[in-house]
């Protein structure tokens, strides 16, 4: 689970920088708190999905179900 959050955190940070936004600007535009943006970019593993989607929507994305290899999980 942590790996997926890290991927989201890397994505959000890269998109924020690509769009020349500061963390406070991103928080304001997404309607979330600055602390939330910092936690998201640091890969905190307990974040509200609705707030993550608020941030991701700025970049045309949202969280969704991803099919996993069940055999890989059982090893």
UniProtKB/TrEMBL annotation:
Domain HTH cro/C1-type residues, every copy: 12-66
Organism listed in the record: Flavobacterium aureirubrum
Organism taxonomic ancestry: Bacteria, Pseudomonadati, Bacteroidota, Flavobacteriia, Flavobacteriales
Family matches, as CDD domains: HTH_XRE (cd00093)
Span of the signal peptide: none
Domain of life: Bacteria
Protein name: Helix-turn-helix transcriptional regulator
Gene3D superfamilies according to UniProt: lambda repressor-like DNA-binding domains
């Amino acid at each position: 689970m942590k790996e997926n959050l890290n991927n989201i955190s890397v994505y959000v940070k890269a998109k924020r920088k690509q769009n020349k936004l500061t963390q406070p600007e991103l928080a304001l535009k997404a309607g979330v708190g600055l602390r939330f943006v910092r936690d998201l970019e640091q890969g905190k593993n307990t974040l509200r999905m609705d707030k993550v989607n608020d941030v991701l929507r700025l970049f045309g994305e949202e969280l969704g179900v991803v099919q996993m290899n069940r055999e890989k999980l059982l090893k």
